[in-house]
Amino acid sequence: MVSSAVTFLTVLTVSAAFLNYSQSFYTQAGIRGGQASLRQSHLMVIRNLRMAGYGMEPSLAFGFPANWERKASNNNNLSNRLVFRMRNPAFNAFASSLTPSSITLTQPLRETLRRGQVIQAMCEGAMAVGYAQLSADAPTGSKSLTLVAPSGKFPNSNDKFSQTCFTMVGGTARVYVFKIDVYDYSIRFIDNRPYLFRQHGLGPASSADPYGEPVAEDIEAFRVTFLKGNGTPFIPNPADKDPGYDSPENDPARENNNPANIRAVVVGLVARSSTRDLATTAPNVIPAFGGEAEIKTDPITNQPLPTGVRRVVSEMTVQIRNMRSSEMPVPLYSQLPGACKGGAVPTDNYNCAGG
Hints:
Helix content is 15%, strand content 25%. By secondary structure, it is of the alpha+beta class. It folds into 2 domains: 27-61 and 77-83 and 218-324, no CATH class; 87-180 and 329-343. The radius of gyration is 26 Å and the shape is elongated. The mean pLDDT is 81.
């Protein structure tokens, strides 16, 4: 009986130690999963954000839809929505003709352009710049782009395509055509699991973007803070006067709340563990970050948050250098056949780009 009792106690002790080790391993694996999602999200968002405004007027680099702020009723876990744009440096084409309703390219497309894609058209020397959205998909090999009717404002300012420099296309006059990429980040729940989600501004005009995709799982909250050149946080207001390229340094428009005055963005993320910690019953709280108070109840259901979830908070400041542009980037690409093959410099002294 004594031997049986000792054996039982030994087995019980070993079993308890094994269960504690298994629980600890399970908990740490979940924390590592959340940390991995946090790193992945930060790397992607920050890498893209550093290019915001490339090839565009600074006032158009960021978008502010009606529900972008964290206090909007449809924003999950009081998260912001971050929308920014940039010219795609890997795409360039030339127009043989263009009107406010269509663009004909000199060469067939090497990739499919989706409905809703924003296109930038530019006369030589950036004498005039206009934007348009595609009203239908343009498949690989096509030369024709059909456009949404102009509205007189971005992203459908294709009414400018009736200006003289656009109508003179052909011969020695050239019109560049570029693709504008849209990065639209927000928090979405898929099967009750939070994801950092990216939309592309493509597809049918609806709130459900069929060409979006989840970036990382278990990103529970996402907040951004915009900073001016002196480090002051502010809420951008597109209605404020736009400081143009030729605005002097002492122009009051360079100090107002127009989005063109964004110089840095603080990106804050909260990642939760991918598994629950069953050993703790502490109340679940999304910690305070981004200058806001902690969240103790679900903003959608007003119910207490479930227990057993560990969280990691990270905030990083990203300098947006393209917002300091003093003029529109004007590309000078060679049109000579075979000019960019074999590493040779084009004889017209232009650049090689776009494949």
